[in-house]
Amino acid sequence: MKDLHPVLTLEALVEREAARLDAAQLSYGQGTTNARDEAAWLVQWALGLPMEALGEAPAQGVSPDAAARAAALIDRRIASREPAAYLTGEAWLQGLPFTVDRRVIIPRSFIAELIADADGQGLLDAWLSERTQRVLDLCTGNGSLAVLAALAWPEVQVDAADLSADALAVARLNVDRHGLQDRITLLQGDGLAATTGRAPYDLIVCNPPYVNAASMAALPPEFRAEPALALDGNPAGGQDGMDFIRALLAAAPTRMSEDAVLVLEIGHERAHFEAAFPQLQPIWLEVSAGEDQVLLLRRDDLAGG
Description:
Helices cover 36% and strands 19% of the residues. It has helices at 10-24, 35-46, 53-56, 64-80, 84-88, 111-115, 144-152, 165-177, 213-217, 221-224, 243-251, 270-276, 299-303, and strands at residues 8-9, 61-62, 90-93, 96-99, 134-138, 157-162, 184-188, 201-206, 256-265, 283-287, 290-298. The strands form 3 sheets. Strands 7-6-5-8-9-11-10 form a 7-stranded mixed sheet. Strands 1-2 form a two-stranded antiparallel sheet. Strands 3-4 form a two-stranded antiparallel sheet. Strand 5, helix 7 and strand 6 (157-162) form a beta-alpha-beta unit. Helix 2 crosses helix 4 (64-80). The longest helix has 17 residues, at 64-80. The model has no long low-confidence stretch (mean pLDDT 92).
């Protein structure tokens, strides 16, 4: 008798679900950039498989019950427009898993590439020295950049600051998850005010809110599911997305050691940044998205020295 429920291969299941996602015209950019990668993530998570399973064993069979579980998760993704990371409770950055939920923006900062690449060494190493002892991850969100920094540079102490108590609660989960309680200190406060009383920093990394007013109004549902506090660069009603960054750059020299550098992510807002700070000459750092997403400023650049 012909099998009425033939077993799918893992690859065929992913392709089937990718076609469904593609037909639904969803938005991506919160851990994946396309329907195929999103389907691979959700299918493997639903099946309890490691993220490398598809690449290592694409022809492995998937039972009808397991395929139905994966399809149900894809149904949720399509119907809710909820980001995949919120559905799974987990996101990956530079090969490391991080706990996430709706209290935090989904980690995707390109600064992560600069902290540590696949070989464990990133571009920022060239800007550090044996005197580098204190690092600040400002606007830490779920704490992913702080964790990556602590792992990349075992000799440093890391402060991770955020205005949101909810975000810091999730950051605590990730600090504990990676066993870094002795290396990372969580601080709550508005921008650099959170670091009052702390010693100056040798490196500050910051992926701040920088989305301008027009872009905020046009965000798709997946991005509107994230905390607006982590995205909106002008919550007080400004237009160019630079309000937080203006305050940060004005105060940063007082929180930086003599040879310190500030690494700042601004997404697609280079034009707004250059219009707001025409006197600055930042060093633009190349990441996978290009050379206009992340910039570096030395303390002397900010202090006018």
